Inverse folding.
């Protein structure tokens, strides 16, 4: 390579797509499909936590409470963000720890999947694997403003996972195009 040719800058910060949203918004389901379409690794942060703890999430909550779970969640997020080219599905409460927001924003592009409370109720029901599902309305009201801080908001009420994946993919392409625009 000649001395006059400079390499092009990377178009993004680290290449990860991070999915956040309330429980039942479709993060894991959409995340798997999106990772497959991109041929990237899929990481379900809740599964990482369970693997590292050696027990399911309800047992973690039972033994350590929500505070203990949130500590494990942040450690799993930090560990996961050491790699790139991943689609990461985060737990619904990850936004309740303020330090997690810049971690996610610096670790990739964050997409918030949104669903109405009615849709959430239909999808979650009384799932015993969701320790906080008993407080659905209260949690939903508290977390909605936390989710609103992310630039990329995707509605999942329709339940059409292919449409959601296409919309995320469309927004990724817009980000790439914008990253390559000349700076004036």
């Amino acid at each position: 390579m000649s001395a006059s040719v400079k390499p092009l800058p990377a178009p993004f910060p680290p290449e990860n797509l991070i999915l956040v949203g309330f429980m039942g918004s479709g993060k894991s389901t959409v995340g798997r499909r999106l990772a497959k379409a991109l041929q990237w690794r899929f990481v379900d942060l809740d599964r990482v936590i369970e693997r590292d703890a050696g027990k399911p999430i309800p047992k973690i909550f039972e033994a350590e409470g929500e505070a203990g779970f949130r500590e494990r969640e942040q450690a799993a997020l930090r560990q996961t963000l050491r790699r790139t080219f991943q689609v990461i599905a985060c737990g619904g409460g990850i936004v309740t720890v303020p330090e997690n927001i810049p971690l996610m924003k610096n670790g990739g592009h964050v997409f918030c999947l949104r669903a109405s409370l009615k849709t959430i109720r239909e999808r979650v029901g009384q799932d015993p694997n969701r320790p906080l599902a008993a407080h659905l309305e209260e949690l939903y009201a508290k977390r909605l403003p936390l989710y609103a801080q992310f630039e990329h908001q995707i509605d999942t009420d329709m339940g059409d996972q292919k449409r959601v994946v296409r919309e995320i993919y469309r927004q990724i392409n817009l980000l790439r195009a914008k990253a390559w625009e000349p700076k004036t």
Remarks:
- The chain has a mean pLDDT of 87.
- The domain at 16-177 is CATH 3.40.50.300 (Rossmann fold).
